[in-house]
Design brief:
This protein has 88 residues and is mainly α. Helix content is 82%, strand content 0%. The termini are far apart.
């Protein structure tokens, strides 16, 4: 097995792990969370979005963009809950 094919295999494994983490995060219940839990969840969402974005910039896969959008929506909901709704 050449070094190039090993790198490709390693990259695919990393991508799969990140997508699995994103799926677990999306399915996690966000009710009855403390503020500390919300901060942790918000940071986790940001980490996942940034990791997926690095992959997306190289591959331009539409499915990665969809995952990032879903994670961003969930992160925004968490952030609104943390910071409160702005007054109109």
């Amino acid at each position: 097995m050449s070094i190039h094919s090993m790198n490709i295999t390693k990259n695919k494994i990393i991508i799969m792990e990140i997508l699995q983490e994103a799926e677990v995060f999306e399915k996690a219940k966000m009710s009855n969370m403390s503020n500390s839990d919300r901060v942790t969840a918000s940071r986790e969402a940001k980490r996942l979005v940034l990791a997926i974005n690095l992959i997306y910039m190289k591959t331009k896969e539409v499915t990665l963009m969809e995952v990032m959008k879903r994670l961003t929506i969930k992160k925004r909901k968490i952030d609104i809950r943390l910071k409160g709704r702005p007054n109109s």
